[in-house]
Amino acid sequence: MLNQLFARVRVLFRGLSGNGQSRLPDPLRIASQAGQAPRPRTVAPPAPPRAVSPEQRAERTRALAIRLFGANQPVDNPRDLFGRQAELTALREAVLDGGMHAVIYGPRGSGKTSLVRVFGTMADERGATIIYLSCAGSGDFGQIILPYLHEMGPAPFGLRADEFARAVDLVSSSPTPRSVAALLARANRDELVLILDEFDRLEDADTKAQLALLIKLLADMRSRVRLVFVGISGDVGELIDVHASVRRHLTAVGLKPISDVEVANFIRSTSSAIGVAIAPGALAALRFVACGSPYHMRLFSLQSCLAAIDGGGREVDEPTMLAGLERARRVWSATNSRDAALFEAALADPRWPVAILECFARECAVRLEFTPADLADALERDGFDPDAAPLLIEAFGPALGRMKEGSLRLAFDDVLAPQFLLSMCVTARMTASGHPVSSEGTMQ
């Protein structure tokens, strides 16, 4: 045992004295190695990229087209809100900067929801609290406004949860414009924006009058709560009673058709982003049939690009564009077969040249509503007999409705329908004669 111990001690001393194999690093050898170039390391070559089949590439392009055109979904990113910068600026300046309330109105498919969503994002970035709810068709004042109080919570009021619950319970027992305004006036921590979407569904005139009174009371109390009403209408007065005492606290933002330049820019830039080219004739026709409607602009363009992609191509020429219009009509007619059949019958009726149906369709598309006199003026402007106006109204009667009982103002029950009639007219004309759409937006 002792012999083994002494043997290990001798080995240790030899190592420390330099005799035998050194167990400690040699500083001179390390210094000499530091000046030497490093040895190159062998790196394995990258793996070759996985092959993508034409079918996979086409499917990826289809998915990108559906996402970028977004025909069935409202947008919420400012860069996707084409043609509505003026309206967005008006909302920002009036509501966020000026402390006013607002009404956003326009026809279905005009981009109201997209506009208010982008506005909500902008307001949120500026520190405001946004509460977005939809109105019920038969709700009274309490049913409309109380859900917003419950959504707010106690934070904007600087109250404890139990204090806020008692305050809301007190208002809920008998909700009136004055009691609601008194509670909302206590919100002093944040700017609050209450968005009342689908306001056109609200039918009760007394409820509308109470909401108008709420606007006035909030303004008189210098409340930090703003109301933004959103609805389908051609006239702000049909949405809310804007008598003189309310009008000075309210800004109206009407959504008119997007300009032809903006429509063309959107179609061209979005199709380019997915790698599809739009031929000039096809672009002009798509712009013509959209009539400035964001919904139709996106739907017709999307279906035209999908027709090209599914056909193995990367260009929308005029035949491909017509195929895309047909695809879009199939999407629409699945939910409105009555009007689709009515339009087909009108195109087959020898009384109606395609050009006069185009005039009728465009007049209905660019207006939410029209009178017989409006239609007669449009027919005369385009060189047709104005006396045809009542006959056209009779022919399309099943699809039309009066805006109010006893009113002369008419509108399609399906406000999206006129552009589909127009697309059928364009298809019939271009198929029969090959006449293109001019850059001015009229059929040659």
How many distinct helices? 20
Q: What integer is the average pLDDT?
A: 84
Shape: flat
Give helix and strand order, one letter per element, not per position.
Answer: HHHHEHEHHHEHEHHEHEHHEHHHHHEEH
Cα gyration radius (Å): 34 Å
> What is the number of E strands?
9
Low-confidence stretches: 438-444
Major β-sheet profile: 5 strands, parallel
What share of residues is helical? 40-55%
Strand order of the largest sheet: 2-3-4-1-5
- Note the gap between the termini: 115 Å
Strand content: 5-15%
The SS-based structural class is alpha/beta
Can you characterise this structure?
With 444 residues, this protein is α/β, with parallel strands linked by helices. It is built from 20 helices and nine strands. The chain has helices spanning 2-16, 27-34, 54-69, 85-97, 112-125, 141-152, 161-173, 177-184, 205-220, 236-239, 244-247, 260-273, 280-290, 294-310, 318-333, 337-348, 354-366, 372-381, 389-395, 417-433, and strands at 101-106, 129-134, 192-197, 225-232, 250-254, 277-278, 315-316, 400-402, 410-412. The protein has a five-stranded parallel beta sheet with strand order 2-3-4-1-5, sandwiched between helices. The longest helix has 17 residues, at 294-310. Residues 438-444 have low confidence and may be disordered.
Keywords for this structure?
alpha/beta, two-stranded parallel sheet, 54% helix, disordered C terminus
